[in-house]
Specification:
Chain A: This is Peptide/nickel transport system permease protein. The complex is a heterodimer of chains A (325) and B (522). Chain A is mainly alpha-helical. Helices cover 74% and strands 2% of the residues of chain A. Chain A has a domain at 90-282: MetI-like fold. Chain A has helices spanning 2-30, 34-37, 44-53, 60-72, 86-121, 126-140, 143-157, 182-215, 218-225, 230-259, 262-267, 273-282, 286-314; strands at 170-172, 175-177. Helix content of chain B is 29%, strand content 24%. In chain B, strands 1, 8, 9, 10, 11, 12, 13, 14, 15, 16, 17 and 18 form a 12-stranded mixed beta sheet that branches. Chain B is globular. Chain B starts with a helix and ends with a strand. In chain B, 52% of the residues are buried. Classes of the chains: A mainly alpha (325), B alpha+beta (522).
Chain lengths: 325, 522
């Protein structure tokens, strides 16, 4: 276990280093952020001053060295646009995205697993077919379109839920959270559902496939022969076995939901990290882009680790030390 | 659905209807993003618009960008290089302290100081070489050379309280230093999400209608329209052209429009002998750069059917342009007319210039900056093709477009220019005057157009304090540049706002959305 963790940690450091280098060179190649940030009325002198103020007058390698030096001390630089440490900026936005991601994952699990189990248990029934047809819609409809439709139906026509933005927040341990207010939940519901739609379809399909496969296995026959109730066979023995692929996928998907909820956040004006990264890319706000990607990469590494550990819990045959990466 | 979920939904719906805002609250859906509440940090339209609610300026601009008194009651030039501002008496800051000359001095000292500013407001204060306090309500500003635009520039930045002369940007964002003389007080700033403001009852001017103002950032235009339709916000700016006709018909919505100070134009490389994106039709380099020939530029301008672009691409939400600013702005020419569409005439001119068979050209254009930018360029390209110029369009995001244009990589490009000062010297100095870093001329002149006559007229204008004489010089400079086809003006945008029925907005040429301009019909 320890060897496994150390190896993982070393890999993580290398990945982070390479990542920062790529982003640095990439953003540098695109252009000079000053052209976007500066007022068009500014004259050449003011332009030179702004370039110096942001440290963009140094050659690329020197800029990168300065960045590395500070990064080791935990300082990922100040945003060009906001004059705020990039890390703080991202942390400010993170609770909003986490709320959205967790709510979306919650919805997709709570809805997806039971539906998937039913579709696998009674694949030929009307309900089973309807669920499968519905899941195809979940896969194939573009997120931004569904988002706009949700807004049109629930906010504009029915007037039940607010159309955009985040609701009232309360401060808990220095984090602004909206899940503890009713107004917060009203604002969260539509974007969370929109984000959950795709995952829900995924969970339904995975669960159904697992269900169908496992029901034919010998251990189910033995369990039945032993006289166990159907409920116990399905909810204890089968469920545990079909959870392995579901957990893997959900783990990875949680990462991608957090990192790439961009479309949903944009449509619902949800002030999360996804919107921050898009705005930052449009403004070539390099410190924020670098910090964001480093955090995202760390998060994926961490989630992968948790998934691997969960494997060994769910399936005793899996041993951590045998895993290579 | 589980009973739990059903219960929760029910609770949510009942709570929503109960939680509607009171009559004196206003919510604005803003298309832009606000980076800071420090009024001296980042000179960008959205920031300036929001800080105007909190902070006063010496001089203000009305909805048509005419100068009106704000914290200065009056101003005059005492001699060629000295401007005197008489400050308003009895003005209070939000913390109850009095406003006087020391706050002006502190502001002038802070503006160039702000650390890490990506776009400083010192462009409005750099001309001042000495600030003299005559008494608590009289300030004299001295310049090295005559500076007629002093009052205009004093409308460019906010006045802060002297206790925050060295307050960092964070203090303004947190509200600690966001103490101004404006009609609204800071209540909350949730970056990327919203700004909340509360009415300041000690405001010296007319009392605004709204007790509480929430400015929500809704950058996605479809979402912004939806927020208006659902009643979450009472007013939105930057109404998408595609939705405009529909909203106009909607009984629940009012729209208000005004021509903007923004001209959309084509800029050309008129300087180099070889320009990278103009070749013969077979791809071989040409002997000389045809864009240097005024006849070619004139032909291209004549080839453009501006009414068609306004009608089809802009869906009526623009006005064909003849110069740098729409009629009525200070310094605009009274004689210039919109270039008539004349393809035959254009072909004749091309032949006269020796390009009977035309040439090949690539126009570069941003695709995320100006309203319908890429579509406009596509339309222009087709019109050029009709007079024998084989035209390609390369549309790229502004983040890559702008740095490449600054490096002079393009031959012809689409730009927009909004005159923050509301008069013609702004476009003339920024992208028509000869590029000269020493004088600060032509910083946005990416075609490197150069015309000594224009430079001379503009130079004179910028030294002439007398308004009438200056306006005449600016008109002459404009006419000289346009007749020489320094740029090809296409159209002026129209600024649109949409409000819920029962609300009206006084539309502004400078694209700002101000809570003070929103009125409820009684």
């Amino acid at each position: 276990m320890t060897v496994f963790l150390i190896r993982r940690l070393m890999q993580a450091v290398v990945v982070l280093f390479v990542m920062s280098l790529i982003v640095f060179v990439g953003v540098y190649a695109i252009g000079n952020p000053i052209d976007i940030l500066i007022s068009p009325e500014a004259d050449q002198m003011e332009r030179e001053r702004a370039i110096r103020a942001l440290g963009l007058d140094l050659p690329l390698w020197e800029q990168y060295l300065v960045f590395l030096q500070k990064a080791v001390a935990g300082d990922l630089g100040r945003s060009f646009a906001f004059a705020t440490p990039a890390l703080q900026l991202i942390m400010e936005r993170m609770p909003a995205t986490l709320e959205l991601a967790v709510a979306a994952m919650g919805i997709s699990i709570v809805v997806g697993i039971p539906l998937g189990m039913w579709a696998g248990w009674r694949p030929e029934s009307f309900a089973g077919r309807t669920i499968m047809a519905g899941s195809i819609l979940g896969f194939s409809l573009p997120t931004f379109w569904v988002g706009l439709m949700l807004i049109m139906v629930f906010a504009v026509h029915l007037g039940w839920l607010p159309s955009t933005g985040r609701g009232e927040t309360v401060e808990i341990f220095g984090l602004r959270l909206s899940i503890f207010t009713l107004n917060g939940w009203q604002h969260l519901l539509l974007p969370a559902f929109n984000l959950a739609l795709f995952k829900m379809a995924l969970v339904i399909r995975l669960t159904r496939a697992g269900m169908r496969e496992n029901l034919l296995m010998d251990y189910v026959k033995f369990a039945r022969a032993k006289g166990l109730s159907t409920r116990r066979v399905v909810f204890v023995h089968v469920l545990k076995n079909i959870m392995i692929p579901v957990v893997t996928i959900l783990g990875l998907e949680l990462g991608s939901v957090i990192a790439f909820a961009v479309v949903t956040e944009t449509i619902f004006s949800w002030p999360g990290m996804g919107k921050l990264i898009i705005d930052s890319i449009n403004q070539l706000d390099r410190p924020v882009i670098v910090a964001y990607l480093l955090i995202t990469v760390s998060m994926f590494i961490f989630i992968n680790l948790v998934v691997d550990i969960l494997y060994s819990v769910l399936d005793p045959r899996v041993r951590l030390k045998e895993m290579k990466s | 659905m589980t009973i739990f979920a059903r219960g929760m939904l029910l609770a949510a719906f009942t709570a929503f209807s109960a939680g509607s805002a009171s009559a004196a609250d206003l919510t604005i859906g803003l298309g832009g993003a606000v980076s800071a509440l420090d009024p001296h940090y980042h000179n960008v339209a959205t920031n300036n618009m929001v800080t105007r609610h909190i902070f006063g300026r010496l001089v203000d601009q009305d909805a048509k960008q005419k100068l009106v008194p704000d914290l200065a009651e009056s101003w005059k030039a005492i001699d060629d290089t000295t401007w005197e501002f008489k400050l308003r008496k009895g003005v209070k800051f939000h913390d109850g302290s009095d406003f006087d000359a020391k706050d002006v001095v502190a502001t002038l000292s802070r503006v160039p100081w702000v650390p890490n500013s990506p776009s400083s407001f010192s462009i409005f204060t750099g001309q001042i070489i000495e600030t003299k306090v005559i008494d608590a309500h009289t300030v004299q500003l001295k310049t090295a050379t005559p500076f007629p635009l002093m009052p205009t520039f004093m409308a460019g930045f906010a006045i802060i309280s002297d206790q925050f002369e060295r307050a960092p940007t964070e203090d303004f964002n947190s509200g600690k230093a966001a103490i101004g003389t404006g009609p609204f007080k800071y209540a909350q700033f949730a970056r990327g999400d919203r700004i909340e403001l509360a009415r300041f009852d000690g405001f010296w001017g007319p009392k605004p209608d709204w007790e509480k103002v929430t400015i929500k950032q809704i950058t996605n235009s479809a979402a912004r329209v939806a927020a208006l339709l659902s009643g979450d916000v009472q007013i939105i700016d930057q109404v998408p052209t595609a939705d405009f006709a529909r909203l106009k018909k909607d009984k629940n919505v009012n729209v208000s429009s005004v021509v903007s100070n923004r001209v959309i134009y084509l800029s050309m490389d008129t300087n180099r002998d070889q320009t990278p994106f103009v070749t013969a039709k077979d791809g071989k380099p040409l002997e000389k750069n045809p864009l240097k020939d005024v006849r070619v530029r004139k032909a291209m301008s004549m080839a453009i059917n501006r009414p068609a672009i306004v009608d089809r691409v802009m869906e009526g939400q623009a006005i064909a342009a003849a110069q740098f600013l729409p009629d009525g702005f200070f310094g605009t020419s009274k004689t210039l007319k919109v270039e008539k569409f004349d393809a035959d005439g254009a072909r004749k001119l091309m032949a006269e210039a020796g390009y009977k068979d035309g040439f090949a050209l690539t126009i570069h254009s941003p695709n995320d900056r100006y309203l319908n930018d890429e579509k406009i360029t596509q339309a222009v390209a087709q019109m050029f093709s009709r007079i024998g110029i084989q035209t390609k369009v390369e549309a790229i995001p502004f983040a890559t477009y702008s740095p490449r244009a600054t490096k002079l990589e393009f031959s012809m490009m689409l730009w927009g220019w909004g005159s923050g000062t509301g008069e013609v010297s702004s476009p003339l100095r920024s992208f028509i005057a000869t590029y000269d870093p020493k004088k600060g001329n032509g910083p946005s002149n990416r075609g490197r157009y150069s015309n000594p006559r224009v430079d001379e007229l503009l130079g004179q204008a910028l030294q002439t304090v007398d308004d009438a004489a200056r306006e005449k010089l600016l008109q002459q400079a404009t006419e000289t540049a346009i007749l020489d086809v320094a740029i090809i003006p296409l159209h002026y945008n129209i600024n649109n706002w949409a409000t819920r029925a029962g609300f009206t907005y006084e539309p502004r040429t400078d694209e700002s959305t101000l809570a003070t301009g929103v009125k409820a019909k009684r």
